[in-house]
Design a protein that fits this description.
Cytochrome Bc1 Complex, Chain D, domain 2; Cyt_c-like_dom; membrane; heme; iron
């Protein structure tokens, strides 16, 4: 009878030991798999650009742009009119004053640049802005020229 009992205990002990080994083996395997998918910090630091701080002139320019220009122009892409970023590199400042104050008069004078823009945009007239001073226009241009 003790012989049968010791055989039974041996079998049960063997099964318990096997189950313990299987559980620890599975836990080890799962831990190894989880390490493959852990989130790691980036190898190179990420450059964070500080927010742009506008000057008083640029703040005025932004306000004037939104009031007078935004319905037809965007800073960085074409809309009803051309994209305005970079306009001060493409055009002379005095020319810009004349164009913004009264583009129709500049076109009628036969100015080659004015006529080319007029034709490029399906002969659509830009609104005249005689109420804007050169300082106002400078403020608008200073805001328009802020890089992305």
């Amino acid at each position: 009878m003790f012989n049968d009992l010791s055989k039974g205990l041996a079998i049960i002990s063997g099964l318990i030991l096997t189950m313990i080994l299987v559980i620890f083996g599975a836990a080890f395997f799962v831990a190894q798999e989880q390490q493959k998918y852990t989130i790691q910090a980036p190898q190179e630091p990420i450059e964070v650009k500080p927010p742009v701080v506008l000057t008083e002139q640029q703040e005025l320019g932004e306000s004037l742009f939104k009031t007078n220009c935004a319905s037809c122009h965007k800073r960085y892409k074409k809309a009803v009119g051309p994209a305005l970023y970079g306009v001060t590199e493409r055009r002379d400042q005095e020319w810009l004053y004349k164009w913004i104050v009264n583009s129709s008069q500049l076109i009628q004078s036969g100015d080659a640049q004015a006529v080319a823009i007029y034709n490029e945009y399906n002969q659509s007239n830009m609104n005249a802005f005689p109420q804007l001073s050169n300082d106002d226009i400078d403020a608008i241009l200073s805001w328009v020229e802020i890089p992305k």
